[in-house]
């Protein structure tokens, strides 16, 4: 696991396009490239990549955003994106990415790491639960599309 670099941009764009397709959200390559380039340039995200072998091909990505919890009165991180190329699934890359995000969140003083995944993404649910994540039983989470 390592922080993304400018040299990873093409690989990360390719993975991100696959990630969006997995969740049935179409986006053109240029729009994805602009979004990721803006994330690289800002300080609002942590974007990590995984390689099966050091210096090898980038096979996975994880992106987390820092936020705040008013109820807990402290910082929280949102693991917003996690994707591993299908050819590298089972290699431990996803687990390593999740662990690195959690380790970095802890080092930064975050109270917790939260995430969401699709109801039918049973593989991801198994990974998250095996890493100590629990389904929220206290709150229902809602979202409203406002544009874009």
From TrEMBL:
Keywords: Acyltransferase, Transferase. Residues 1-148 form the N-acetyltransferase domain. Signal peptide: none annotated. It holds the Pfam family Acetyltransf_1. Gene3D superfamilies: 3.40.630.30. InterPro entries: Acyl_CoA_acyltransferase, Bact_Acetyltransf, GNAT_dom. The keyword NAD does not apply. The keyword Transferase applies. PANTHER family: AMINOALKYLPHOSPHONATE N-ACETYLTRANSFERASE-RELATED (PTHR43877:SF2), AMINOALKYLPHOSPHONATE N-ACETYLTRANSFERASE-RELATED-RELATED (PTHR43877). This is GNAT family N-acetyltransferase. It comes from Myceligenerans indicum.
